[in-house]
Amino acid sequence: MKPVFKDGVWPVVLTPFREDGGLDMTAYRALLEYYIGNGVAGLFAVCMSSELYELTPEERLTLAREAVAVSAGRVPVVASAFLGNSEAEKMQSVFDMAATGVDAVVIPACQLVPETADEAGFRRAFETLLGRTAGIRFGLYECPHPYHRLISPALLGELARLAGERLAFLKDTCCDAAVIAAKLVACTGTPLKLYNAHLTTCLESLQLGAAGYSGTSANFYPGLLAEQAACFRSDTARARELQQFFNLVQRHVEFKYPRSAKLFLRECGVPLTDFCRVACDELDRDQMIQLRAFHTGVQAFARNSQPQLTGETAI
Questions:
Q1: Which pLDDT tens digit goes with each residue over 52-89?
Q2: Which CATH number covers residue 28?
Q3: Is residue 314 part of a domain?
Q4: How many domains does the chain have?
Q5: Is residue 313 part of a domain?
Q6: CB-based burial, 192-223: b 16+ in 10 Å, e otherwise
Q7: Is 2 part of any domain?
Q8: By the 8 A CB rule, do 59 and 36 touch?
Q9: Which residues form the active site (predicted)?
Q10: pLDDT of 288-310, one tens digit each?
């Protein structure tokens, strides 16, 4: 079994598309290098930010293989599977994704069981998955679509102990520090690492014992998030300063995502188009001016200057 994942930032990897809608693998490689160059701890490829449900099964595998190849062992890579129109297709997607060389196959919780299933049903489904996939390491993702299934602290503790070394990653989307604290207590002594997707509770969750952050903001300032993950114990004042800045600019991150993230990364030098397969309106002239001001502000703050943000809190 591969080593336990490192603490830090796991960006939710975007999918670059050409203007004709096909995968842009040149841009994808540049994007992956951008993340790694900004000090991330791992890469969560093939997730909601990747436009998961708009990708074909083969495209998901292509993106995962390329992420593994580009990383070349510098950081671990995880990617989502258990997707398809039947149980057989879902299981085959797990085996196919594992064969790409990813460090863990991430199971969206909302795909494992129907919305009507209770916690006992979820546990049985997870146990069945383990029994049918010997040797594959997993992650869990509280994916909000097609429905938002959260895993309770008690159930998470059961799953972590049931799976042992085979459950290594959780992308937590509960957005509640108290619940995160309970989950961390429930999983004490297991290899499971919790990565919080909620930016506002990012610092608090790190202080509680979360392994790091895995959310949309890592597509705007992964280096600053990595700095916070590295300094929250040794330089509490800087960690608080970073959190205050993150809270200030969060509305910019949320606005017309993921298109805005692709345009922001283009300002950073990553050769992305703003093409999205998910429904997402284009930014108008004023919004582009504001996005560029947001980019300038992030760059200024990264140089330990005061952020030069203008206008309203949303672009």
A1: 999 999 999 999 999 999 999 999 999 999 999 999 99
A2: 3.20.20.70
A3: no
A4: 1
A5: no
A6: bbbbbbbbebbbbbbebebbbbbbbbbbbbbb
A7: no
A8: no
A9: 141 (proton donor/acceptor), 171 (schiff-base intermediate with substrate)
A10: 999 999 999 999 999 874 444 44
